[in-house]
């Protein structure tokens, strides 16, 4: 059993920076009157709200957890939206959350401070006739038990929370889930357990495979953000899962990691999924889940910013309200006429196109097109060269990268899944950590990039010069440890390679191997004269996901050789939309 493989370390008390005005354990019920403000900088409540604090919920194994519930005052039964994460149900007013809002440029007045970090705001939802539930899950703060990190156990626990909520005398029996990041990922796990009263979910950017998205992306043990999660969250009186030790002990896929992947084919509930191309932590996982869930009624919206400003944008909240009104209240509001896909096309020059309607992703007018690497001219071409022309770099040299460029003479739009199909060789080494990047260049050859957040300050520039990739989009990046190149034949498609990560196949001297590197989906417009640059390197080209994290350095030595043309025709496959 995967539980036998888990490793734990002691949890600890919530630090002062993570403590909010409502964090203290104070069971009871009171009414917050319209106009109530938890603090002056936050949004006032527009309606009277009943606040049930530190409510006990007993799980299947006798463990007691606690939840805060906000619901409209009155006697009408209402549906409830669950925000499930380990971040602490009262942290909306904490210094850490206010600091994050400041970092991205969101004023605190956008929310009431009653919301769970990354979750739905009771000020908005109670005014629309919904309750909001903030559970502190197993092992979090005053809740009993030991906490886990993104695991099927979360789904089993959330199942019981949902069924408990549905039985409350104020609830009409309909339950939904919403939230970004961690709160999105827990929705996959919960929906896979199929709680009878779960009526709809709204995962707003979140990983869907802990191994492939968080700790060992591309087979590389890049645990910077996992360390941030483990050390900066999961506070309580019991134990918390030691994901860092698990990575060190179990570098290949096993039952532990399999249980940190939701059972996508069991997710059948209506789903409104929100994604972006630019979030280097969540992008691949969100699109993977959207592709693989079995829901017949599922919608995808791909925005052009960052998840937090997008989530709390009023127009987007209104859009989500239509979805929940339809599935949790039975309102006939023509939600089902909403395009199944609404995607964005970025130009990185201030002219993004948003809400482009389609019936699928990639759109039906997209063709996967191969651009062959030409080692002689360092260009990307429509046809492979007849001769094998290798290009190489020394790992210890500067530059330790090679790149290839193509110029677009006509306006060209790329929408969908790119991938890199490469023939590579390691000299004086038996393995390679490869990093790749698709970059847009203007007509003068200058790389283009774009902030995803409202904050464009000097400090924002400082932290994103190399790193903090969730705040500044520089292009689509992929990575692969070549010894983990084995493909999963059942899950791989021509557009999206999937690796098993269940074996290590080292390289022999002189051996040239064929690899596929997964890249995140893109929506990118090139105007006439602009160029696309494809970079291959032994170094992490974009840096860290978040500010202040340690950067992963590839486990490389010797020389990397990229073969092009002839029998080893490497190519970059791009999703080209019809003109």
3D architecture notes:
19% of the residues lie in helices and 29% in strands. It is globular and about 75 Å long. It is of the alpha+beta class. Helix 4 packs across helix 5. Strand 10, helix 10 and strand 11 (298-303) form a beta-alpha-beta unit. The chain has an eleven-stranded mixed sheet, sandwiched between helices.
- What best-fitting shape do the alpha-carbon axes yield? globular
Number of H- or I-type helical stretches? 13
Task: Please describe the biggest sheet, giving its number of strands, its sense, and whether it closes into a barrel.
Answer: 11 strands, mixed
Alpha-carbon Rg, integer:
24 Å
Estimate the strand proportion.
25-35%
| Helicity, as a percent range | 10-25%
Determine the oligomeric state from the structure. single chain
Number of strands: 28
End-to-end Cα distance: 53 Å
Enumerate the spans where pLDDT stays under 50 for 5 or more consecutive residues: none
Provide a compact summary of the structure:
With 579 residues, this protein is an alpha+beta fold. The protein is 19% helix and 29% strand. Helix 5 links the parallel strand 7 and strand 8.
Which terms summarize this structure?
about 575 residues; alpha+beta; seven-stranded antiparallel β-sheet; about 20% helix; globular
Task: Write the topology of this structure.
Layout: H1 2-5, E1 8-10, E2 28-32, E3 49-58, E4 64-72, E5 78-82, H2 95-104, H3 122-127, E6 131-136, H4 152-166, E7 171-180, H5 182-192, E8 198-204, H6 210-215, H7 224-232, E9 239-241, H8 243-249, H9 255-258, E10 271-276, H10 283-292, E11 298-303, H11 307-312, H12 314-328, E12 341-345, E13 353-358, E14 366-374, E15 379-381, E16 391-394, E17 401-407, E18 412-416, E19 419-427, E20 433-441, E21 450-451, H13 458-464, E22 472-473, E23 476-481, E24 512-518, E25 522-526, E26 531-537, E27 559-563, E28 571-577
Parallel strand pairs: 5-6, 5-7, 7-8, 8-10, 10-11, 11-12
Antiparallel strand pairs: 1-9, 2-3, 3-4, 4-6, 12-13, 14-15, 14-28, 16-27, 17-26, 18-25, 19-24, 19-27, 19-28, 20-23, 20-26, 21-22
């Amino acid at each position: 059993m995967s539980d036998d493989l888990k490793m734990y370390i002691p949890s600890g008390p919530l630090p002062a920076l993570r403590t909010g005005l409502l964090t203290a354990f104070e069971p009871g019920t009171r009414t917050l009157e319209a106009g109530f403000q938890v603090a002056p900088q936050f949004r006032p409540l527009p309606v009277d709200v009943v606040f049930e604090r530190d409510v006990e919920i007993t799980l299947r194994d006798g463990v007691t957890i606690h939840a805060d519930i906000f619901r409209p005052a009155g006697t009408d039964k209402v549906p409830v939206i669950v925000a499930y994460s380990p971040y602490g149900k009262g942290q909306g007013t904490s210094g850490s959350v206010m600091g994050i809002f400041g970092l991205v440029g969101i004023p605190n007045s956008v929310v009431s401070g009653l919301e769970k970090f990354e979750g739905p705001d009771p000020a908005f939802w109670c005014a629309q006739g919904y309750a909001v539930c903030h559970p502190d899950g197993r092992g979090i703060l005053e809740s009993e038990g030991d906490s886990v990190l993104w695991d099927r156990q979360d789904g089993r626990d959330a199942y019981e929370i949902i069924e408990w909520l549905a039985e409350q005398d104020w609830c009409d029996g309909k339950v939904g889930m919403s939230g970004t990041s961690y709160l999105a990922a827990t929705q996959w796990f919960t929906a896979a357990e199929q709680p009878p009263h779960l009526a709809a979910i709204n995962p707003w950017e979140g990983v869907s495979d802990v191994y492939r998205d968080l700790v060992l992306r591309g087979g590389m043990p890049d645990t910077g953000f996992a360390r941030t999660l483990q050390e900066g969250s999961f506070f309580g009186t019991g134990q918390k899962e030691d994901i860092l030790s698990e990575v060190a002990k179990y570098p290949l896929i096993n039952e532990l990691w399999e249980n940190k992947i939701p059972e996508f084919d069991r997710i059948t509930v209506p789903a409104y999924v929100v994604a972006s191309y630019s979030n280097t932590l969540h992008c691949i996982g969100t699109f993977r889940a959207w592709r693989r869930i079995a829901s017949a009624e599922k919608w995808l919206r791909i925005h052009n910013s960052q998840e937090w400003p997008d989530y709390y944008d009023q127009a987007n909240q209104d859009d989500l309200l239509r979805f929940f009104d339809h599935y949790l209240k039975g309102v006939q509001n023509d939600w089902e006429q909403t395009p199944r896909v609404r995607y964005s096309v970025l130009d990185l020059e201030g002219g993004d196109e948003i809400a482009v309607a389609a019936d699928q992703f990639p759109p039906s007018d997209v063709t996967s097109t191969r651009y062959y690497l030409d080692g002689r001219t360092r260009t990307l071409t429509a046809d492979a060269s007849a001769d094998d022309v290798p290009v190489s770099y020394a790992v210890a040299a500067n530059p330790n990268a090679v790149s290839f460029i193509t110029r677009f003479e006509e306006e060209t739009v790329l929408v969908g899944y790119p991938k890199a199909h490469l023939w590579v060789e390691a000299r004086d080494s038996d393995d390679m950590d490869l990093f790749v990047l698709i970059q847009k260049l203007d007509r003068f050859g200058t790389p283009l990039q774009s902030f995803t957040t409202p904050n464009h300050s000097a400090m924002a520039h400082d932290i994103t010069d190399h790193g903090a990739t969730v705040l500044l989009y520089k292009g689509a990046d992929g990575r692969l440890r070549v010894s983990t190149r084995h493909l999963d034949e059942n899950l791989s498609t021509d557009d999206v390679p999937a690796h098993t990560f269940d074996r290590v196949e080292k390289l022999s001297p002189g051996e040239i191997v064929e690899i596929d590197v997964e890249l995140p989906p893109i929506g990118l417009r090139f105007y006439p004269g602009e160029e696309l640059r494809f970079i291959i390197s032994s170094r992490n080209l974009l840096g860290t996901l978040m500010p202040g994290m340690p950067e992963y350095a590839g486990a490389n030595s010797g020389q990397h050789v990229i073969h092009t043309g002839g029998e080893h025709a490497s190519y970059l496959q791009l999703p080209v939309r019809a003109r």
